[in-house]
Amino acid sequence: MIGRLLDGRYQIRSRIARGGMATVYLATDLRLERKVAIKVMHGHLADDSKFKERFVQEARSSARLAHPNVVNVFDQGQDSDMAYLVMEYLPGITLRDLLQEHRILTTEQTLDIMEAVLAGLAAAHKAGIVHRDLKPENVLLADDGRIKIGDFGLARAASANTATGAALLGTIAYLSPELVTRGLADTRSDIYAVGIMMYEMLVGEQPFKGEQPMQIAYQHANEVVPSPSAANHLVPAELDDLVLWATAREPDDRPKDARALLDQLYQTHSSLMTALPPTASTAVQRTMVLPSAPAAEPQNSTADTQVFGAELQQVAAPAPTQVSENTTTLSTRATKRKSRGWWLVVLIVLLVGGAAGAGWYFGAGPGSQVTIPESIKSATPAEAQAMLEELGLVVSDELGETYDPVVAVDLVANATPEIGTAVPNGSTVQLLISQGPRPIAVPDFLGMTEEEARTAISEAPFTLVEPTVKQFDGDIAAGLVVDVLGADGASIVGAETYGELQDVSLIVSAGALPDVSCSTVDEATQILAGVGLNAQLGIEVFSDCAEGSVVTIDSEKNADGVARTFREGDTVTLITSRGPDLVQVPDVSGETINGAISELESLDFVVNVETDLPQGFWGSGLAIVSGTDPAAGEAIKRGSEVTIFGPQI
């Protein structure tokens, strides 16, 4: 790519960075004579319409934003097989680079960076855009001090329930609980990612770690982000509150958007700066009036050490009477201190004893508080009971029931009081056993468009597995639902209920298979590729199509006589032509009519007889064939009609 000229305008100079979807290059815009950054989609993704759509989405999302804290996108285009975006070039580093170099940032640095990030994100949220992939790699720190958000490749319109794809697809360490469990994202999902970033800047590491991505995802979905000050005691309580507010497990407990969090950040910044003690560099330097030096004789005006006269010593020395009074006072005070020393000892003993008693009462006694642990979730009832009793709680003999879309049937899903609640030591806890996902009524999907079905799935709610499957069906119009499959691959269409938040796959009609009969193999292959199908050659058959051309697509019917269905990405088998099946007409002249009919029908000809003799006389052997039409030796298609001529009366 280095040195290549894109669209006759952008000269590629060097590579800046490489990601999973594209590579970013430094280039020169020859038309405007300026440096730009060009994001070029990886070659192996060029044929994937989903990735191209994300590229175009990024350009559109960024084009809707005009904010100093958002990277500008200037252009988007296609050069040969390469899709690209032209963006503002910012020489500098990413927030990830800064964290790798310094690990932990100061309170002031964190606040400054977060103010810029939230200002840009607030502009996106105001424009109705959810970023969905906020992380330190996407925060750019320019050499001139500017801070900008980039990479809107996964951005979507901000609605109350914006569904995400692949996935489970945007970075696991910054995914909100609702994205992990339900695949739904809105502005509050971006706020969660901002909170994780703020924690990482203050502590030097992410709050949740694991060897496998699923371990991290599980922690995001089921655990509470700890206070940054628990890992870094220098973090102020005000920033603890901000991080915990932004990373609340329930979206409703977070700021509604970036503007709400930014307003609070401004207040926190202001209060922290007011509360910080002045240092040598920041303290106010007040003007001070120094006492004038005693007048000296001209000859004594030197910088040498001087001995002051007795008059100054007298001013400094206390009077004898004063010394006597002070001594008496100090002696009296000493006597009083000794006389009350004994009851001070008693008081200290009482205070220590009271503190120890209070510590026992509130720490291990009846007044102590015990938090119902998250670890009992997904445990067996016996395991959960052992854990709770070890903490000093009493477990009810009566088990409750609850629906849970994640916890397997017959395992502990929750408790009364709820998991995470602090209760007095010795309290009774009832275990709630999972009955599996809550049964949800299945909508009537047949006849819905894809968008209508997506809305119905979200409102149910079920979890839509991306991407939607396109299936060719000549009986259902393109864009309408063909079927909806459950997690086990069986259809849920017509079922009364299905589990809450469980996976469903949407099958949508792509219309009828294209007609490729009598086209060449190359033509048929191109036509099928245009609708997302691959082609391979199958058997050859006789047909009226030209030899070597395509007769039809092999339907591969199953044992029940039902033709196979085809979906985008499938491979179809082409049945090709051997040309017409030609057979020479045999010479049956001189044979009896019955004998001639048998011989011709054995070659699959349809036989007509022209004679005045009734058919009853043919078997006598006297009715002899005089000729055929077509004539003997002529090659005609198998199955054609042949007329034989018998004797005339």
From TrEMBL:
It catalyses: L-threonyl-[protein] + ATP = O-phospho-L-threonyl-[protein] + ADP + H(+); L-seryl-[protein] + ATP = O-phospho-L-seryl-[protein] + ADP + H(+). Its EC number is 2.7.11.1. One of its GO terms (molecular function) is ATP binding. Residues 367-435, 436-510, 579-647 form the PASTA domain. Residues 10-272 form the Protein kinase domain. Keywords: ATP-binding, Kinase, Membrane, Nucleotide-binding, Serine/threonine-protein kinase, Transferase, Transmembrane, Transmembrane helix. This is non-specific serine/threonine protein kinase. It comes from Salinibacterium amurskyense.
